[in-house]
Amino acid sequence: MPEAKKELEEIGEKVLKDLEKGENPFLDIPIRSLSNVEFDEKTGMLRLKEEKPGKRFLFHTGHAKKFMQTMLVSAFCKELLDQGLHTSLRDLYYALKTTLPNSSENTFNEQSESDPIVIDLEVALKILREQLHLSADVRGRVVGNLTIRDRGDSINLARLGSGGWAVPSNVEDIEFRNVDADFILVVEKNAAFERLNEDKFWQDPDHKCIIVTTQGQAARGARRLIQRLATEKNLPVHVFTDADPYGWYIYFVIKYGSISLAHVSDRLGTPNAKFLGLSVSDIEKFNLQKYTIKAEDVDIKRAQEMLDYEWIKKRPAWQEELNLMIKKKIKAELEALSGRGLKYMTQEYLPKKLKEKEHLLD
User: Fold this and answer.
1) What is this structure's pTM?
2) Is the model's pLDDT at 337 over the cut of 80?
């Protein structure tokens, strides 16, 4: 990653020059608080506001330790890039954890100190931490008529049996080859993925697709993979989650980006994503009343919080859906469709939704 290496080198060079001039070295670290996040209607994604970055000084009692930690992490990432190695955030923490000479002060006491420094670098350098060779959580599986090239290996995702291909943390160097699909179907649950895969839903000529399960909230690798496939191969994205605020938020994060990672929404968000289901409206329409679950207070509270989101306020269809859940105090899981028969999801619900394009609006 020449760009990442160059950015890291420039950090070190700037500090040295400041010291040589007798000045107090500082780093520009953009503010990542909620107050500095906004929804950009033009791009359809969350982003950091264009405000003055915070400054982190070396000779400052309140900044000195974080400045030192930032330089340690920067140097460690430079070594990773020089050696062509990748590692985890946990490994980084242990590699840099030490006690300073002639003191009882540690460089890092907990991983909760090193993780935010990595994000600070990511924001300041405007690059993904994966480009610094730091791996995030590995979560997600894929199946479909798609061949990829990953570190020299050619992998046919249509020939991986029942398990599918496990999405790695870093998908920057994955090459997409021989893509034969009309859209990407992103599925929240493993159980739904298993049903869709066993029924070979993705092979049907009426809905040829690449199926991605996020296994809950999508990890960074899965979000980046979805975005790359959507943009580089011009594939529509349909998201299929539980009918509850947490499932819907999975869709919002895939589409708009997340508040905590607003600084990389342009590389993790997929604005063309559409919501396919499950919705509270579907419960009556598809006769699922017997398979609903009572919404708990925490579900109602979360739905009410989401109604206050800037991007929800401007989308009447989502306001209506959230208010309907609050009013009826019910929710439903994807597995509820199995109440109508194990193949109901693949033979009735999804084909009907896809054919009639019954999505909620953006």
Assistant:
1) 0.83
2) yes
291 is catalytic: no
Q: Find out if CATH 3.40.1360.10 is the number for domain 141-356.
A: yes
Q: Across the beta sheet with 209-213, what order do the strands follow? A: 165-166, 141-143, 209-213, 183-187, 237-240, 273-277
Of 41-50, 66-75, 155-164, give the lowest mean pLDDT range: 41-50
CA distances from 87 to 39, 166, 170 (A): 33, 18, 11
Asked if CATH classification 3.40.50.970 holds for the domain at 2-135, the reply, yes or no, is: no
Summarised one tens digit per residue, pLDDT across range 262-316 is 777 788 889 999 999 899 999 989 999 999 999 999 999 999 999 988 888 888 9
Q: Which of 93, 94, 251, 256 is catalytic?
A: 94
Can you give the residue ranges of every domain in the chain? 2-135, 141-356
